[in-house]
Write a structure and sequence with these properties.
With 222 residues, the chain is of the alpha/beta class. It has 2 domains: 66 residues, Orthogonal Bundle (Helicase, Ruva Protein, domain 3), CATH 1.10.8.1060; 125 residues, Response regulator (Rossmann fold). The chain has 7 helices and 4 strands. The chain has a 4-stranded parallel beta sheet. The radius of gyration is 18 Å and the shape is globular. InterPro entries: Phosphatase-like_N (IPR048716), Ptyr_pPase (IPR023485), Ptyr_pPase_sf (IPR036196). Keywords: Arsenical resistance, Oxidoreductase. It is an enzyme of class 1 (oxidoreductase). Its EC number is 1.20.4.4.
Amino acid sequence: MTKTYQRHDLSIDQRLALKTAATNLQREFAETFGLETIERFLHSSYDEFAGRATIIKFLPLLAERFARQRLQALAKAEGLSHDERPTVLFLCTHNAGRSQMALGFFTHLAGEQAVAWSGGSEPASEVNPAAVAAMAECGIDISTEFPKPWTDEVVRAADVVITMGCGDACPVFPGKRYEEWVLEDPAGLDLESTRPIRDEVERRVRGLLNDIGATPLHSTVR
């Protein structure tokens, strides 16, 4: 039985886009999860963004991307995935600056050697423009990323959890390696003031990659 959204009015285009998203996810995860689980994750992911989105036409795409990440995490957490690569989760308060820059550097430098996700305890409505610009100076595009919350399955699937200022709001699960990176929050800062934070994030990410046995694959430009 197809579920409906009770809190958000959907246009015809949105309904069609969500139907396409459900089909895509079912095709990808059919051998791992049932239809009910896939739709539940898609629907809850949509609701997560619908409550704070400023541009609603992208909601189905964001919901599909977030649901895919969550299903991948659930598969790993429950031992249903054959992906044994180290997985790192970067957490900060708004998932708009520090954790997004860390994710950008990690993905760029690790390649296929490891997996990284990011999240926030109080997700913002968009990624910090100064962080986007600072990363672009390094040849890394994070403009298509989006702030999102952390979820239980994502934390459970992570081998290493890096926290950046979210304090008691950051989740603590037994058996995980936790590190707190003390970094200034770039929220409200201009590009010039964001650059030193970006450079420190890169330094720490490179050190983390060495710790988990992943060799940085690229240099970064300035």
